[in-house]
Prior knowledge:
Elements: E1 2-11, E2 14-24, E3 29-33, H1 40-47, E4 55-60, E5 63-64, H2 69-75, E6 76-79, H3 91-101, H4 106-119, H5 135-146, E7 153-157, H6 165-180, E8 184-188, H7 192-198, E9 201-206, E10 209-215, H8 216-221, E11 227-233, H9 251-259, E12 264-269, E13 274-278, H10 282-294, E14 299-304, H11 309-317
Parallel strand pairs: 3-8, 3-9, 6-7, 7-8
Antiparallel strand pairs: 1-2, 1-4, 4-5, 9-10, 11-13, 11-14, 12-13
Helix pairs in contact: 3-4, 3-5, 5-6
The structure holds adenosine-5'-triphosphate and magnesium ion (MG).
Residues 40-41, 81, 157 line the site of magnesium ion.
Amino acid sequence: MLDIQNLTKSYGQFLAVNNLNLHIDKGEIFGFVGPNGAGKTTTMKIVCGLLAASGGSVMVDGVDALNNPDEIKRKVGYVPDFFGVYDNLKVMEYMEFFGSMYGMKKADVDSISEGLLELVNLSDKKDVFVDTLSRGMKQRLCVARALIHNPELLVLDEPNSGLDPRARFEMKEVLKNLGSMGKTIIISSHILPELSEMCTSIGIMERGQLVTSGHVDDVMNSGNGGMKLHIRLADYGSGEDDVSDGKTYDREELQRTLSEQPNVRKVQCTEDEVLVSFGGDETAAAALLKSLILKGYAVSGFYKEKEDLETLFLELTGNHGGDNE
Ligand SMILES: Nc1ncnc2c1ncn2[C@@H]1O[C@H](COP(=O)(O)OP(=O)(O)OP(=O)(O)O)[C@@H](O)[C@H]1O
Ligand SMILES: [Mg+2]
């Protein structure tokens, strides 16, 4: 759906996007992450045909975005990181205004808008002045108007910033719905736990370049920490040194045995479970589970902790403080 090759953008001497390569398949919800000034907004605007690139190529659904800005605007819906000011415009008039920019007939805009306002849960606000909506409602209205011409690709720049937890949850539901309708979505955000929950793939950008990108699980497992396994044992026992009831393992011995297994980096016995930092993949984790069972351990729980995007982000972008300058 989206294919970016060797994209560069300089503002004067300053290189904001530096030889960026990125591929996003149709139907993906792609999370775009990076410190302030990394070049996310710049990249998104170029993809939407709103900003000229300095070099490289951007193809959206087979259309060359850099040389066909008008055609690209029909394929893409853009939700900018600011809402703008719309004096004396009611919600439905706002939708009509944007529909007319795509040359749509008022009757078509009205019927499509009904559905879109329902999708973003604003049906009861049709006749309300846009400026009186709350921030969360404005963000959702912005999503509705970006969809008015039924674009293939929806690009959202920080749609969750400044929203309360309920509004963020509602926005997440709207985007998930759109994803299940087969839309391709690019979303930038600094709220990382939400992004990793919602997205199918993710890219981390820093200083105009992509540090890593791919499917969420693959990106998460690419960090230095490897995966963290939580192991529960039915007869783990309750006290650290309490072996008198015959039910409790000698934790030192347990730790030693586990440490000797392949790919095990670190073992930590907590109050009620064992935590293992594990350097292997899913197959290796299955082999570890099998060997524990064969050794006679009563394994009652064995699961992989969902990696934390925030930790990975800090790991990968930690070398240079905040802004790009
Ligand atoms: N119009 C402009 N003129 C000059 N420099 C610009 C312009 N727009 C952006 N830049 C610079 O380009 C770099 C990338 O900015 P951009 O807005 O793309 O970053 P971002 O990743 O979206 O950051 P944030 O997370 O803060 O939104 C920054 O250093 C910024 O100062
Ligand atoms: Mg930005």
